[in-house]
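Team,

Forwarding the record for the chain on the shared tracking sheet. I've put the sequence and predicted structure together so nobody has to dig through attachments.
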Amino acid sequence: MTMATTSQPRAIWSMLDGYRPITNLLGAGDPNVHKIDNQWWMFFGGFQRNFTNNLFSASLPKGASLGENPRWTIRTDPARPHTALPLVDQPAKGEWDHYGLHEPCFVSGFTTTPAGERVPCRRIYYTGRSSRTTLGNDTPFAIGVLEQTPDGWRRHPDPVVVGDSENPSALGPKVIFADGKWRMWFRAAPGEPAKGDTPVAEIHYTESEDGIGGWTPPRPFYSRADLFAHAYVLKTASRYEMLLSKSPNLFGEPHYPQQGLWLATSDTPSGDVADWSTPEMLLRAADGPAWVRNGYLGSSLCVDDASESAGTRHVFCTGVHESISWPKYALTRLASLRRPPVPSPFYFTIGHVALDLGT
């Protein structure tokens, strides 16, 4: 399998530049892109001015192609055109995911009604947190789900997958519906590492008949020694492809693993890593623009219908900007009569890159 980039990574939205005319977001990441009813949609996590996270969406014009360098439009509140509209209301205080809904993963599949009828459904799986802090958090993360209804997205009240005693946190759900089952690869970890900590993560696999309950006991897929923290699966016409990345080096620390994106493939949606190829590196973060040099996270892989036969894939990712000094950067911006960025220990950018996977 030969691989080559067909475009340079292109920034879509950056924390450093802000999200104007949107005014209620301080940060955005984890883009998850799908074609729904002949229109491309992006679901992403947004950090709001009230210091909670929720899930938001953006779209391209109907009929637009991913390869045309188009402009994404964030969905806004009809009554407040500069306010990004969350998919669901913020969960109430005391709920298991009150402080944050992160890492969305949209899936179309089938469910069974109480009458026993098999019907199509659309869901978004996500990471939820009850801790005010994201890094070095004091309560475990868990995985929840939203379901689309005629009245909009509805949040399932309870988490669907939780951690265990060895890995209390379950994060980053990457879900597909294949061969009649909901199949999930997720990050199992003690928690999200704070500055100075060594990242620890495993990829586990579980499956369910209805995608809500009855998940099989999670089994290891990639071990801690493999260092992978995100594993996104795409079904194509001929195979399954898995886009992989490692725990991002948010603070530019020397003890972190090499940053980049890798690809593995399989003929089946197997939960056994032995059925997948050895991961090959697609992109090395150090070779990219400044906004990806500290790593990638929350990446997704998709294919535009017309280009699949040519081997073109589209990666939508969150890049972590190389470490900067906020005071110095702010002064530089002010000197050029530009607004300084929001003070932050690290900066995310949602971006896109097209890849030619060859044969």
